[in-house]
Amino acid sequence: MNNTYKLAHYLEDLWSKGFKLKDEEVRFIYFGKNYTNAHDWKIILAINVTISLQFDFDRSFFLSLLELFDENNIQTEQEAFKFLKQLGFVID
Fold it and tell me: CA geometry: angle at 63 spanning 56 and 20, to 5°?
């Protein structure tokens, strides 16, 4: 994932690919970003994992991922993928 890839562009890409988040879901994503003070790449990864594993946008799952990243001091994408793998999530 490109660290310069901004959250707004990612959400637009989801929309253009047919995955249409509701306005309240987008607001919740930004709430999660502010609540955890996470970088865009963490938010994007959490959205991607949530959608991939839940087949929908599950707010509590998304926020739990962000909190886990924060609690485990995940600083890089490589650390995040390793951590997710340790949790048993298969992420390609």
Answer: 30
